[in-house]
Amino acid sequence: MFATFFFAAIALVVFDLLLASVTMYIAYSHGHSRGKWFLLGMVLPFFSIFIALAVAIRDERRAERARGGAPKPVPEPGEF
Q1: pTM score, whole prediction
Q2: Which of 14, 18, 16, 10 is nearest to 43 (CA)?
C-alpha cells in the first residue's frame, strides 16, 4: 500500500516537473524569466502552459503593433 502511494507521488512530481519545464521553455523562448515561469509551472502545472502561451501571443501582438503592422525583420544569414 505504501509503495503504491510512494510511486504514484513520484510519478506526479515527475509529471509536474515536465509541465513546469514546458512552461519555462515557452516563456524563455519569448524573452521571459526562466525561474519565475518554472515556479509558476510548479504551482499551476497544467494551467501555466496556457498562461505562458497567452502571454507569448500578447507579446507578439504588442510587437506587431509597435512595428506599425510591418512584417518581422528577416535576419541575415548566420544571425539568430
Answers
A1: 0.77
A2: 16
